[in-house]
Amino acid sequence: MILNNKNISIIALVTSALLFGSTFAVVKDLITSINPVNIVFLRYVIAAMLFLIVGGIPEKTYIFPGLLMGVFLWIGYITQTIGLETTSTINSGVVTGFYIVLTPIFSKFINNKTIQRKNLIGSVSGFFGILLIALNDLDQLFGNLFTLICATGYALHIVMVERYIKNMSISKLMFIQSLSGAIFCLPFLNITNLGLASSFIFPILFLGFVVNFCAFYLQLFGQKSINASTASLLFGLEGVFALLIGVFFVGEVLNLINWLGVIVILISIFYVIKE
Questions:
Q1: Are the C-beta atoms of 157 and 173 separated by less than 8 Å?
Q2: Tens of pLDDT, residues 84-118
Q3: What percent of the chain has pLDDT over 90?
Q4: Domain edges within the chain
Q5: Integer distance in angstroms from the first to the last C-alpha of the chain?
Q6: Is residue 223 a contact partner of residue 161, using CB atoms and an 8 Å limit?
Q7: 86 near 116, Cβ under 8 Å?
Q8: What's the pLDDT tens digit per position in 3-35?
Q9: What is each CA distance from 205 to 47, 95, 200, in whole angstroms?
Q10: 181, 236 in Cβ contact below 8 A?
């Protein structure tokens, strides 16, 4: 495979999806001991410091787009983390994947982007694959309002990235996004639960550095060359990776129909990204 700009961007987005997918099991374990908002706050603080070190203090032009991205991402993070208190890592991963369908719609109306026929087919078939993965838990799929709100937040975040990323510094934009996310958490923090035991330090550092810093940098890098509709479909792999991690490391169980869903998602992605 020739590593042109498009292929490099695809690799960046798939790697980002892998890192995002790895968070479900980690967060699921953490929320048994730490307040969900505290987890999100600490992730944001770590990422904000790292992006400030890498990119420096951003200019005023970064405030509005970074704030918009931060609002929608914060909505996604908070609702997804709270939702994990009452749902499985697999179910959370696949319901979140509803943004595969929402993103092309939002992109069309917000960014005036044309929905290509192959993106529409890929999005619908990709979401059908997600439904197949979640067939072992339909009650949670349609009843988990928090996670559906999360999917909306993530879709709007992807669309905002598409709108603003082309001519902006990734690190400066991400600093504003991360800082605003941390500030939004402040009114909901549980101060008495903010102290961390030594056993929680590594998972929090993992979430802050590997995911909020590295994965989001890869997302914005990839979206410089990939439209929001295709990017959201590639991010559908997040649910697949969450599923595989849930099966092999958490002990969750899937049936044949669920595995068929994985295949449908992979075929949908290949159909969209192939030349």
A1: no
A2: 666 666 666 666 777 887 888 889 889 998 877 88
A3: 37
A4: 5-273
A5: 12
A6: yes
A7: no
A8: 778 889 999 999 999 998 888 778 777 877 888
A9: 10, 26, 9
A10: no
